């Protein structure tokens, strides 16, 4: 159970542009050069990655590392986005993230039920195990600069539209129209065009790439978060502790959270069902943590959409979507940073592999699907399905949420959860313990269900 | 053509339509562009709201009117939030039998034994009260009461007796016939079945089935759950749907 509102979207470092080569820019459509074939012996594959979040930066890194001429287009310099900023432990190794980027190492995780039963969810942490928390602006900037050092060209600018070739099979290029960021001191950016063979859309929940290739839409949840700087004595409580609150006062279908950030805490909540009432739920989470945050100072308010399910089409022609643009955010925990970075890397590696193995002249939709989507689904589909089921079973009502918290106190549940969360692999348990767990789950749900029914009965009695 | 390629499985299950959010968002687009020159954050995560995070907001317009964006001190006394309705004074749950975050079981004693039924009743009332008046959690007096404190038999009693009767009867019949069929099909006797993994699984399924499917409506609820789950799966599979007609997408 961890944290997570993350959402990849094009934010950039604000680092000076260091691209060694200028990309091929076409000033206007009227002066287009003759279409170039997608493959010629002299020229490597050209790829554009739209969006410089974890997904885009990882894709660019993998592409550039695979010998592809890569352009990373990102909209705006360092902003932070509303994001829990928690990543699974295995991501540090897998993506070689240096330890100094980690602001906090959360070793305590507490989950509180609607009746305020608090359960320490992290008792089963082994020595050294923790949940790394970092700031997205720091992580994103690091991943981007690493992609650049691998040879990707960073283009600060706003992607505006994508012009598909008249025929996909001919190997004509896609034309990317974007407004490059204005130089310091000037107001207007310059409209520019870039011709590429493959496009990776990593531009987040409101993906323009997805829209321009009619990849379909998904329903989204909204996450709302306030960053609050606490007085030192209150901050001490959240030194290495994250709190999760469930209950209908906090969110009808998700949870509210308090996550420690570098020098403050993030207090927030999310919902799919009743987005217009997000303010009410934010007031709810504030009220629930009141005694712990009173006297704090709100330094920032953020809200962001979170995808609820994958897009209807994740690969269209030679355009592949990754991260939030593809809808890779888990249910239940709402985690997305790892999946964004991982999908970006998988997609980038797939494209480089297709290109390097390919004797033909083009990268086709079928190849992208086979090398990227098929592998992704095989690896992670079960996890998304499972978390979706958990969300349906446990986030439905207050009674179920009580049962969830009780179960979270179970040693075996904790071990299996963290095994899966921290290392992103299916934890294989002992089947006897699994059966016992099923039994306890049914028991807890039944008991909480009885309570829930009685509460309902009291309510109807009171109304009569 | 592009429209025709759209998968039939556009999301429909959520109560909130994605179109709505698109509509809200669209008017903001030109703004995004114009604010490009303004976006530069302090970068240490503690800065004031950068326009980058504001413009990304789903409901940007609404958010921008919140006074919170200027620094706001949270008052010490009571929660109050952005004009949302929260009572000025939060009442707390009070019951003489609720001591130190749990029910004082001594006060529930009747004839030398704990009256668990009364404990359940008291907890039900507390939970209803908390639903109506969510209470701030605090570190000084954590809640430690959970349902495992109450032994299993008061819970069983809570099922209406006729219902328990029905469930028992069903479980016995299903158990008997399953044992009979397994025996007749495989030749494994009842005693041996007890030591057999497959038979234990069957037993578990039977018990779970009897507990979960108590009346016909339960089947509907379960069906709904399964449907919703398969719907999510279909959303994942949607991208593969056009595989049957790959030529269409290629020859645009």
UniProtKB/TrEMBL annotation, chain A:
<dbReference type="GO" id="GO:0015979">
    <property type="term" value="P:photosynthesis"/>
</dbReference>
<comment type="pathway">
    <text>Porphyrin-containing compound metabolism; chlorophyll biosynthesis.</text>
</comment>
<dbReference type="InterPro" id="IPR010253">
    <property type="entry name" value="BchP_ChlP_pln/prok"/>
</dbReference>
<feature type="compositionally biased region" description="Low complexity">
    <location>
        <begin position="28"/>
        <end position="39"/>
    </location>
</feature>
<dbReference type="GO" id="GO:0009535">
    <property type="term" value="C:chloroplast thylakoid membrane"/>
</dbReference>
<dbReference type="InterPro" id="IPR036188">
    <property type="entry name" value="FAD/NAD-bd_sf"/>
</dbReference>
<feature type="region of interest" description="Disordered">
    <location>
        <begin position="1"/>
        <end position="39"/>
    </location>
</feature>
<keyword id="KW-0149">Chlorophyll biosynthesis</keyword>
<comment type="similarity">
    <text>Belongs to the geranylgeranyl reductase family. ChlP subfamily.</text>
</comment>
<keyword id="KW-0560">Oxidoreductase</keyword>
<dbReference type="InterPro" id="IPR050407">
    <property type="entry name" value="Geranylgeranyl_reductase"/>
</dbReference>
<keyword id="KW-0602">Photosynthesis</keyword>
<comment type="function">
    <text>Catalyzes the reduction of geranylgeranyl diphosphate to phytyl diphosphate, providing phytol for both tocopherol and chlorophyll synthesis.</text>
</comment>
<keyword id="KW-0521">NADP</keyword>
<comment type="pathway">
    <text>Cofactor biosynthesis; tocopherol biosynthesis.</text>
</comment>
<dbReference type="InterPro" id="IPR011777">
    <property type="entry name" value="Geranylgeranyl_Rdtase_fam"/>
</dbReference>
<dbReference type="GO" id="GO:0015995">
    <property type="term" value="P:chlorophyll biosynthetic process"/>
</dbReference>
<dbReference type="InterPro" id="IPR011774">
    <property type="entry name" value="Geranylgeranyl_Rdtase_pln/cyn"/>
</dbReference>
<dbReference type="GO" id="GO:0102067">
    <property type="term" value="F:geranylgeranyl diphosphate reductase activity"/>
</dbReference>
<protein>
    <recommendedName>
        <fullName>Geranylgeranyl diphosphate reductase, chloroplastic</fullName>
        <ecNumber>1.3.1.83</ecNumber>
    </recommendedName>
</protein>
<dbReference type="GO" id="GO:0045550">
    <property type="term" value="F:geranylgeranyl reductase activity"/>
</dbReference>
TrEMBL record, chain B:
<keyword id="KW-1133">Transmembrane helix</keyword>
<dbReference type="GO" id="GO:0016020">
    <property type="term" value="C:membrane"/>
</dbReference>
<feature type="compositionally biased region" description="Basic residues">
    <location>
        <begin position="23"/>
        <end position="34"/>
    </location>
</feature>
<keyword id="KW-0472">Membrane</keyword>
<feature type="region of interest" description="Disordered">
    <location>
        <begin position="11"/>
        <end position="81"/>
    </location>
</feature>
<feature type="compositionally biased region" description="Low complexity">
    <location>
        <begin position="11"/>
        <end position="21"/>
    </location>
</feature>
<feature type="compositionally biased region" description="Basic and acidic residues">
    <location>
        <begin position="54"/>
        <end position="75"/>
    </location>
</feature>
<protein>
    <submittedName>
        <fullName>Light-harvesting complex-like protein 3 isotype 1, chloroplastic</fullName>
    </submittedName>
</protein>
<keyword id="KW-0812">Transmembrane</keyword>
